[in-house]
Write a structure and sequence with these properties.
Distance between the termini: 21 Å
Number of domains: 1
Shape: globular
Structural class: mainly alpha
Strand content: under 5%
Number of strands: 0
Helix content: over 70%
Largest sheet: none
Number of helices: 8
Oligomer: single chain
Length: 235
């Protein structure tokens, strides 16, 4: 149980550390891109090795799993549309001001990530560990990637503190409410979360990673994350 609480807390601590690091270290865009590739590989491995097998072994109808996954896809599509609308509105009215649309979508992602980790630990320690590890790597540089012309210094620290508390609270709530439910309910939540994580990898991490000049070995870093997590799971 102590290990469970440690891994529930870890992503929140990591994102806060990422924000603190911005006060004296600004990583290059290339380094951030490589870490995003690494996180994408780990999250894909977590889904493939732990999450999808856990859902398949649950006593739940396949149609229910597919329906939950579809709901997750539609929800993330709605988040994407909302974020684009809010960002466009903010840029058109006050392009040099604080981008609230972007921040809102980041906090929605943090809530979903926290619930996903909680659902993973409700399913089992291995699943929870897989999700917490993958998302912690992504969270490490999330705080640092928030830096912009209007988000810097103390504002980054405030944002990362808020995100840290958000993911911590949602992870504990997800674990608390799902840990005493049936395996089918947990599988339903994991199917929804799997859609959110695939969105995170394909529509956020990799797209952001490709915005800057890539190194030839970027692809190798992605597969290194996947294989590294797979080796840990096998051992």
């Amino acid at each position: 149980m102590n290990n469970t609480y440690f891994w529930l807390i870890l992503p929140a601590v990591v994102i806060l550390l990422g924000g603190i690091l911005t006060t004296f270290w600004h990583p290059s865009k290339t380094l951030i891109s490589l870490v995003q590739h690494l996180a994408a590989g780990i999250i894909l491995a977590a889904l493939t090795v732990e999450v999808f097998p856990e859902m398949r072994n649950a006593a739940i109808a396949p149609a229910t799993l597919i329906g939950s996954f579809t709901l997750g896809v539609l929800f993330m599509y709605g988040v994407k549309i909302l974020g684009e609308h809010l960002e466009a509105s903010g840029e058109s009215t006050a392009p040099q001001q604080f981008n609230y649309g972007f921040i809102i979508t980041v906090f929605i992602d943090a809530i979903l990530d926290g619930i996903t980790i909680g659902a993973g630990f409700a399913a089992g320690e291995k699943v929870g560990f897989a999700l917490a590890l993958g998302l912690s790597v992504e969270m490490l540089f999330l705080g640092m990637s928030l830096i912009s012309d209007t988000i810097k210094g103390a504002r980054v620290l405030r944002l990362t503190t808020g995100l840290s508390l958000t993911i911590l609270i949602s992870a504990f709530l997800g674990y608390y409410f799902l840990s005493n439910t049936s395996s089918s309910t947990i599988a339903f939540a994991l199917a929804f979360s799997a859609a959110a994580l695939l969105y995170l990898v394909t529509e956020e991490l990799l797209i952001e990673a490709h915005k800057y000049e890539e190194k030839p070995y970027s692809m190798l870093v992605l597969f290194a994350g996947f294989i590294g997590f797979w080796v840990i799971s096998l051992l």
